[in-house]
Request: fold
Amino acid sequence: MKNVEKTCDELVSWLRYKVKEAGGKGLVFGLSGGIDSAVVAGLAKKAFPKNSLGVIMPCHSEPIDKEHGILVADSLDLQTEIVDLTRTYDQLIQSINLKNTNKLAMANIKPRLRMTTLYYFAQSYNYLVTGSSNKSEFTIGYFTKHGDSGVDLLPLASFIKKDIWEMAKYLKIPKIIIEKPPTAGLWENQTDEEEMGFGYDILDNYILNNTGPEELVEKIKKMNRISQHKRAFPPIFKPKE
Reply:
């Protein structure tokens, strides 16, 4: 990133413009305790100092995630709400009554419940829901369809993970948030890089330079190809005239 200050200023202006364009009053976003949501929080606070809301939504989560979400909020003097979705999740699983051994299918319920929660606040306050997916994750489909991608705005989707770390330092996000291993928090001890099968350095280098270890490049290309449906509007049938 050539000029992190200029980029952040442009992002703040863009957020203000998009909210005004939609006739909204502010921004709401999930606050997970991770670096991406922390950067969104920092930008939102600059764009709408009095109309930014971070929602912390534990759901069978590690206690440290909630603690880090609160830490970020305190460091930014950010308004927050805490909505514990654990019982809601358990009730839904019980109501579905499907003996499902698909770990990912069950885990993806969590971001979809969070999406629903964020839109409840958004409609209540006339805010726009702001997502935290970055370009690295967006490229390979490392997000939940109709979950953390179910948003109105994606301010970070043009920036690789390396850029996010730069912005976090500029926005004075707490050091512990910047330095901890990135995780989607889908299950205990889960980390992004372990689940993806390669590091962000490999992924970012491929995005920027279209190169890398042959085996991993093929894996990245495949992940991009099979996740195309997650980045597009659902296909619409068009009858023959």
About this structure: The beta strands are 26-30, 52-56, 79-82, 127-129.
